[in-house]
Specification:
By secondary structure, the chain is mainly alpha-helical. It has a single domain (43-148), classed as Arc Repressor Mutant, subunit A (Orthogonal Bundle). The chain has six helices and three strands, in the order H-H-E-H-H-E-E-H-H. Strands 1-3-2 form a three-stranded antiparallel beta sheet. The longest helix is centred in the N-terminal third of the chain and has 30 residues, at 7-36. The N and C termini lie far apart (38 Å). The mean pLDDT is 91. Residues 7-145 form the HTH marR-type domain.
C-alpha cells in the first residue's frame, strides 16, 4: 500500500537527505586529508574552496556562505592565517573591514585539493543530468529563501 506524503513531509526528507549528503562529503574529504597528511580541516577547506572561486572577500561574506557566525569565522580565518594560507588586507572601500586573500601557499594547496573536490562531486552526481542537478539546486535555494524571510 502506497501512502502519499504531503509537501511538509517531503521537505523534511529533503532536508535530512541534504544533511546526510554533507556528512558523506565531509567523511570523504576528512579521509583524503588524513591520507595525504594535509594540515587542514573540513571547515577550513570550505573557506578555501570559496576563496578559490572568489578571492578577496570580507569575513561577513565568508560567514554567510559557510553558515558560520562571526566569532567562529574569525577563529577559522585566524587559523588559516597561522597556517599562512590566507592574509587579511584592509578594504579600500571601508577601512574597518578586512578582505581575505589567498597566499601563495593557499593557492598551491588548490592543486592538491581541487581534484578531490571534483572527484567527490562527480561521484555524487553519477547518473544525474545537468538539468536534474539544476532543478534540485533551484528547489533548495527557493526553500532557503523562504526560510530567510
Amino acid at each position: 500500500m502506497t501512502t502519499t506524503k504531503n509537501i511538509a513531509e517531503l521537505a523534511r526528507e529533503l532536508g535530512r537527505a541534504t544533511g546526510e549528503m554533507r556528512m558523506y562529503l565531509r567523511q570523504y574529504l576528512d579521509m583524503q586529508i588524513r591520507l595525504e597528511e594535509v594540515d587542514i580541516t573540513f571547515e577550513l577547506l570550505e573557506i578555501l574552496a570559496y576563496l578559490y572561486r572568489k578571492d578577496g572577500v570580507n569575513q561577513q561574506e565568508l560567514a554567510d556562505i559557510t553558515a558560520k557566525d562571526k566569532s567562529s569565522m574569525t577563529y577559522l580565518i585566524d587559523s588559516l592565517v597561522k597556517r599562512e594560507m590566507v592574509t587579511r588586507k584592509e578594504d579600500p572601500q571601508d577601512r574597518r573591514s578586512k578582505l581575505i586573500y589567498l597566499t601563495v601557499k593557499g593557492k598551491r594547496l588548490e592543486k592538491k585539493l581541487g581534484p578531490w573536490i571534483v572527484e567527490i562531486y562527480e561521484k555524487a552526481t553519477e547518473g544525474l543530468t545537468t538539468a536534474e542537478v539544476q532543478q534540485a539546486l533551484l528547489i533548495v535555494q527557493k526553500m532557503n529563501d523562504n526560510l530567510r524571510k
